[in-house]
Amino acid sequence: MGAKIWLITGCSSGLGRALGGYLLERGDRVALTARDPTSIADLVAAHGDNAIALGLDVIRQAEANAAVAATVTRFGGIDVLVNNAGVAIVSAVEDASDADIRAAFDTNFFGLMNVTRAVLPIMRAQGRGHVINVSSGAGRTSAPMIGLYSATKHAVEGMTQALALELAPHGVKVTAVEPGAYATRLTENSITGRTSAAYAGAADAMKAYLAGGRFAPPIVGARVIAAVADLDEPPVRVPAGTDALDMMRAAIEGQRAELERWAELATCGEE
Predict the structure, then answer these.
(1) Does residue 271 lie in a domain region?
(2) Is 258 a domain residue?
């Protein structure tokens, strides 16, 4: 498919690190970013001129602008942006504080927008490019204790769908990749606040799920993202992993059943 130039956020661990390593091994050129760039120095050292490590906290627009400029200076352009940086928030909706909710949205949505806005003028000028937003299976459905995390990813999904339509005339593609559960540090570094007695049962169930789940390695998602970027006509949304695919199928079937059950109610106001 030819070597590509990538800018990836959130490469210190998990999916971002796995993706960066996978792309470098296949010969692509990659700008790896993290809040602490020393955490990715080993990847750069192993791949020489094809890699660059950049400090980037996505919630800071100036840092996003600088990372994009440094990538273009080093490699001459950007073919693919992967908005991967994210944070989990595990909390009952009622229990979460304003500060925790805003922190989750700052990284997962507003931070994503900071980097996207910095990249788009370059891609439009090139007349090509691909923005890949790492969403989640929770971007199409939800569950107790992840409602606010899900809300951030629903926001990403809605924006992605519109952005794909807006950028199509400019030759720029947009995709939301929806991973299932991977064995990453996302939940270890999640935002968690107090849990009230009313939601203790839901919290215990979530803890049991996280402790007992057999999660796929992040390389699974990395391969899906690479394959999506190699397509001439990529999807706007695509699950990543068997569990995500099964989750999407169940969610769509459930939504369709609910829609048909209440179709008469939906039209009851019409004469």
Answers:
(1) no
(2) no
Q: Is residue 266 part of a domain?
A: no
Please write the tens of the pLDDT for every residue from 125-157: 999 999 999 999 999 999 999 999 999 999 999
Domain that holds residue 124: 5-243
Token couple for 167: 């950028």
* Maximum distance among all Cα pairs of the chain, rounded to whole angstroms: 70
Structure tokens at 217: 């390695």
What CA–CA distance (Å, rounded) separates 35 from 44? 16
Alpha carbon dihedral 21, 23, 24, 27, in 10-degree steps, equals 160
What are the helix and strand counts (H, E) for the chain?
Answer: 10, 7
Residues that are catalytic: 135, 149, 153
Confidence of residue 57 (pLDDT cuts 50, 70, 90): very high
Q: How far apart are CA 267 and CA 183, in angstroms?
A: 45
| pTM of the predicted protein model | 0.95
Q: Which amino acid is at 146?
A: I
For residue 205, give the CATH number of its domain: 3.40.50.720
Cβ contact 5:77 at 8 Å: yes
Residue 267 lies in a domain: no
Three-class SS state of 178: strand
Task: Count up the domains in the chain and report the number.
Answer: 1
